[in-house]
Specification:
The structure holds two protein chains of two kinds.
Chain A: H1 13-22, E1 28-29, H2 41-53, H3 66-78, E2 89-92, H4 94-106, E3 112-117, H5 122-129, E4 133-138, H6 149-155, E5 160-166, H7 178-191, E6 194-198, E7 224-229, E8 242-246, H8 248-262, H9 267-278, H10 280-304, E9 309-310, E10 319-320, E11 323-324, H11 331-342, E12 344-345, E13 347-348, E14 360-363, H12 368-385
Parallel strand pairs in A: 1-12, 3-4, 3-5, 5-6, 6-7
Antiparallel strand pairs in A: 2-8, 7-8, 9-11, 10-14, 13-14
Helix pairs in contact in A: 2-9, 3-9, 4-5, 4-8, 10-12
Chain B: H1 2-20, E1 23-28, H2 33-44, E2 50-52, H3 62-67, H4 81-94, E3 101-105, H5 111-120, E4 125-128, H6 138-155, E5 161-165, H7 169-172, E6 181-186, E7 193-201, E8 204-211, E9 214-220, H8 225-240, H9 245-253
Parallel strand pairs in B: 1-3, 1-4, 2-3, 4-5, 5-6, 6-7
Antiparallel strand pairs in B: 7-8, 8-9
Helix pairs in contact in B: 1-4, 2-8, 5-6, 8-9
The chains are: A alpha/beta, B alpha/beta.
C-alpha cells in the first residue's frame, strides 16, 4: 500500500486509553467525557412523535432543519446574541464535525493554528487533518491556567491563521474571564486571525459569575466561529448533533465543507435537538444539580488523596485535572499503571498537550456508584503500592 | 385524556374571547412566527396593549393557553395538566380586563391543524411570515404546505385582512385563495410595504420601509433578512390598526 497522509495523524490518547481499558475486565472508566445519564425522556418522546409526523428519513437542508435553526436563533437572542438562522447557523454532526469543517474551510496547507494547552485532545489532530500545523502555547498552570497574550504574540508567525479556544476549557475545567477573552479578541482582530471557540461546556458553571461569550459583542463576529453541542448538557453524545455560529461570509464557506462531509446532520438527531431546546432550562437545571453533587463527592475523595494529588474544584465541565504529587515516570505511564493495577481508567495529562504533562484527567460525569468504586480502588492502590 | 383537556381549554378560551372581544391577529407560516410575535408585541405595546403567544405556543393547547394568558411555570412547560386546568378556570373568573389585541401564533402542518386553530380563534388580521421548506426533497413539503394553507385561507372570513410576504414564491402561489383585503411587504413588487437599502452594520441592520412615498428608516440589532421582513410586516399591521407609524419606527430603533 502507498504511504498515506493520515500516517502522521494519531488517534487521541483518550481513545487509546478507552481501547486499552476495554480489554481489561471490570474496569471503571473515568476516562472519556461521557455523561452517565441517559438522554432525557422528554427528548426521546419528542423523537418518537416526530417519527410519525415528519420526513425523518429524508435529508434536511444542508445547514439543518429551518425550525431547529430558528429555535437556536431564539435561544441565542435570550442570551443577547444575534445570529441569522438562515445564513449564520449551521447544524453539524456534533461539534467535532463543526471544527473539522471550519478548519478545512479556512486553512491552506502549512497554515498554523495556535492551541493554548492543555486543551481538548482532538484539536491538534483536527488541524493536521486539514493540512494545518498545530502550534501549542502553554497556559499558566500556577495562575489558574491563565492565557497570556504575550505567549500568543511569541507564537504567531506569517503562517498563523487561527486560534482555538475551549471556553470553558477541557481538561482544566477553568473559565476564561471576560477580560482575557476581550484581550484575545482584540489581538486576533488586529492580526486578522480567526478565533474558533469550542463552547461545548458552556452550560456547566459552578461559580457565581456567568460565563462570558464573545458572541455577545458583534464587533468580533467577522473573526469568530463558535462551536456548540447538544452532547454534554443534554447527555446526547451518541446523537451527534451540534451547531456552528459564524458570520454569513464565513458560514457560506464552512457550509460547502459541511455539505461535502456529511450533507446534513442526522435529521432524527435534529428533532432531538429541537426537543432539547424546548425543555432546555429545566433539563439543564436538573442535570446540573446532579453534576454539582458528583463534583462534591469527587472533591471529597480527592481531599482524602491529598498526599498523591493536588487539585482544586473545577469551575465548569465534568473533569478534575489534578497534579500528580507522587514520584512517576510520566502521566501516560502512570495512567496505564493505574488502569492495569487499580482497574480505573483515566486520561494522562499529556493527551491534552505538552503542558498537561504531570497531570491526570478524571471524569466525574460517571454515576455516583462508579465514582465511589473508582476512588475506593484508587485509595487501595495508592495505600498498598506507593 | 389529552383530547378532553384540549376541549376544556378551548371552551374556556372561547369564553374569554367572547367576553373581551380582542382583535385577533394570527401569525402563520413555516418559520419566524415566534420571533414575529415577540417583535410585534414589543413595538405595538406602547400604543396598544397586546397579549401575545409565548414562544411556540401554537397548537391545540398552546393557542388556548395564550388566550387564557397562562404560561405554565418552569421554562419546560411540563406543568401538570391538573394544575393548568385549575388555573385556566380561575382565569375565566379573575380576568377583569384584557388587551385590545392578541397576537396568536398558528402552527399548522396539515389541514386538520388549520381547522383546529380556526375553531379556537377566528383571526381579524392574518400575517404570513414565509413558507420555506426544511427538507431537501421539497416536493412533498410544498404539496403539504399548499394543501394546508390553501385550506386555511379558504376558511378565513371574507373581511379578514391578510398581510403577506411578497418575496415568498410559495405564498404567492396561494394568491388565488387570498381574501379581498391584502397588503404585501417585501423587496419586490407588488409590495405595498417596500423594503430597500438593507445593510449589515457592526451592530445589526439598517433598512428602509416605504409606502406611498413615505419612508421609514429602521435600525435593528438583529442580523438576518427575516428580521427586516418582520419589521415591514409590523408596519403593515400597525397601519391596519391605525397606529402612529413614527412611534413604531422609534420602537424598532430602540
Amino acid at each position: 500500500m502507498q504511504p498515506l497522509r493520515t500516517q502522521n495523524i494519531g488517534l487521541s490518547l483518550i481513545k487509546e486509553m478507552e481501547l486499552r481499558g476495554s480489554k481489561i475486565p471490570g474496569v471503571v472508566s473515568l476516562a472519556q467525557g461521557i455523561p452517565s445519564f441517559e438522554t432525557n425522556e422528554h427528548i426521546k418522546k419528542a423523537v418518537i412523535e416526530s417519527l410519525s409526523l415528519h420526513n425523518i428519513g429524508k435529508y434536511s437542508l444542508s445547514p439543518g432543519l429551518l425550525e431547529l435553526r430558528e429555535m437556536v436563533e431564539e435561544v441565542l437572542r435570550k442570551d443577547g446574541i444575534s445570529y441569522d438562522h438562515n445564513n449564520e447557523i449551521i447544524v453539524t454532526a456534533g461539534s467535532i464535525e463543526g471544527l473539522a469543517a471550519t478548519l478545512l474551510a479556512i486553512l491552506e496547507k502549512g497554515d498554523e493554528v495556535i492551541i493554548p494547552n492543555p486543551s481538548y485532545a482532538a484539536y491538534a489532530e483536527a488541524v493536521r487533518v486539514a493540512h494545518g500545523v498545530p502550534i501549542f502555547i502553554d497556559l499558566h498552570k500556577n495562575d489558574n491556567w491563565a492565557l497570556s497574550i504575550d505567549a500568543l504574540e511569541k507564537a504567531k508567525s506569517a503562517k498563523t491563521k487561527a486560534v482555538i479556544i475551549c471556553q470553558p476549557n477541557n481538561p482544566t475545567s477553568h473559565i476564561y474571564p471576560e477580560s482575557t477573552i476581550r484581550e484575545l479578541a482584540e489581538w486576533a482582530k488586529n492580526n486578522n486571525y480567526f478565533l474558533i471557540f469550542d463552547e461545548v461546556y458552556k452550560d456547566f458553571n459552578y461559580t457565581a459569575k456567568p460565563i462570558f461569550h464573545l458572541a455577545k459583542d458583534s464587533k468580533y463576529r467577522g473573526n469568530a466561529v463558535y462551536l456548540r453541542s447538544f452532547s454534554k448538557a443534554f447527555s446526547m453524545t451518541g446523537w451527534r448533533v451540534g451547531y456552528i455560529l459564524a458570520c454569513k461570509e464565513l458560514a457560506r464557506e464552512i457550509l460547502k465543507v459541511h455539505d461535502s462531509l456529511v450533507t446534513c446532520a442526522p435529521v432524527i438527531s435534529q428533532y432531538a435537538a429541537m426537543a432539547a431546546l424546548r425543555y432546555q432550562d429545566e433539563l439543564i437545571n436538573d442535570i446540573m444539580i446532579q453534576y454539582r453533587k458528583r463534583r462534591k463527592i469527587t472533591l471529597a475523595h480527592f481531599n482524602k488523596l491529598g498526599d498523591y494529588f493536588e487539585c482544586t474544584a473545577p469551575d465548569s465541565g465534568y473533569f478534575f485535572f489534578p497534579k500528580i504529587l507522587f514520584k512517576n515516570s510520566g502521566s501516560k505511564k502512570t495512567a496505564i499503571e493505574i488502569l492495569e493495577k487499580a482497574k480505573v481508567n483515566i486520561v494522562p495529562g499529556i493527551a491534552f498537550g505538552p503542558a498537561g504533562e504531570g497531570y491526570l484527567r478524571f471524569c466525574f460525569g460517571r454515576s455516583e456508584e462508579d465514582l465511589n468504586e473508582a476512588f475506593t480502588r484508587l485509595k487501595n492502590y495508592f495505600h498498598n503500592s506507593l | 385524556m389529552k383530547l378532553i383537556f384540549q376541549i376544556y381549554l378551548k371552551f374556556l378560551a372561547k369564553i374569554i374571547l367572547k367576553k373581551f372581544r380582542p382583535k385577533i391577529i394570527a401569525i402563520c407560516g413555516s418559520t419566524n412566527k415566534s420571533t414575529a410575535v415577540a417583535a410585534m408585541a414589543r413595538v405595538l405595546s406602547p400604543q396598544m396593549e397586546a397579549a401575545a403567544s409565548p414562544k411556540n405556543f401554537n397548537a391545540e393547547i398552546g393557542i388556548p393557553l395564550s388566550i387564557l394568558r397562562i404560561v405554565p411555570e418552569g421554562a419546560s412547560k411540563i406543568e401538570r395538566w391538573s394544575s393548568i386546568a385549575l388555573r385556566a378556570l380561575q382565569q375565566v373568573f379573575s380576568l377583569k380586563t384584557y388587551p385590545k389585541i392578541i397576537l396568536l401564533e398558528f402552527g399548522m402542518h396539515a389541514p386538520m391543524d388549520a381547522e383546529k386553530a380556526l375553531s379556537i380563534a377566528t383571526p381579524d388580521i392574518c400575517i404570513f411570515t414565509n413558507l420555506a421548506p426544511s427538507i431537501l426533497s421539497h416536493t412533498d413539503k410544498s404539496e403539504q404546505y399548499n394543501k394546508t394553507f390553501s385550506y386555511f385561507l379558504r376558511r378565513l372570513p371574507k373581511d379578514t385582512a391578510l398581510i403577506t410576504n411578497a418575496d415568498d414564491p410559495h405564498l404567492e402561489e396561494l394568491a388565488q385563495f387570498f381574501p379581498d383585503k391584502v397588503s404585501r411587504y417585501g423587496q419586490n413588487p407588488p409590495s405595498d410595504w417596500k423594503l430597500s437599502e438593507i445593510t449589515d452594520t457592526d451592530s445589526g441592520q439598517e433598512f428602509n420601509i416605504a409606502r406611498n412615498g413615505e419612508i421609514f428608516q429602521v435600525k435593528i440589532r438583529e442580523f438576518g433578512l427575516h428580521h427586516a421582513y418582520i419589521a415591514a410586516a409590523a408596519f403593515a399591521l400597525s397601519s391596519e390598526l391605525k397606529l402612529d407609524l413614527k412611534k413604531i419606527q422609534q420602537e424598532f430603533c430602540k
